């Protein structure tokens, strides 16, 4: 958990979650005809994680498989929380 390749994707997932919850708290459930800035930022945060997680898996898993799997499980939990917030709050 001490490397940037472990912390950055988890931080991006938590930032996406914060973005969705913050938008919900500010505006409530709004059915917009066009996606706003919050949706685009969420999408960018999610998509940009893919190469970072792949880099982490390729570099760190062979060196420290147990710790690497813990980080990947944490990442998976954070991304599931972000997607669940979109599903339940919009």
Concise account of the structure shown:
By secondary structure, the chain is mainly α.
Secondary structure topology:
Elements: H1 4-27, H2 37-47, H3 49-63, H4 65-89
Structure commentary:
By secondary structure, this protein is mostly helical. It has one domain. Helices cover 83% and strands 0% of the residues. The chain is built from four helices and no strands. Helix 3 packs antiparallel against helix 4. The longest helix is centred in the last third of the chain and has 25 residues. The model has no long low-confidence stretch (mean pLDDT 88).
Features:
single chain; 90 residues; 4 helices; 83% helix
Count all strands and give the number: 0
Shape: elongated
Q: What is the rounded distance between the termini?
A: 32 Å
Structural Rg: 15 Å
Assign the structural class, choosing from mainly alpha, mainly beta, alpha/beta, alpha+beta, or little secondary structure: mainly alpha
Residue runs with pLDDT of under 50 for 5 or more positions: none
> How much strand?
under 5%
Helix-strand pattern? HHHH
Q: Name the helicity range.
A: over 70%
The profile of the biggest β sheet is:
none
Average pLDDT, rounded to a whole number, is: 88
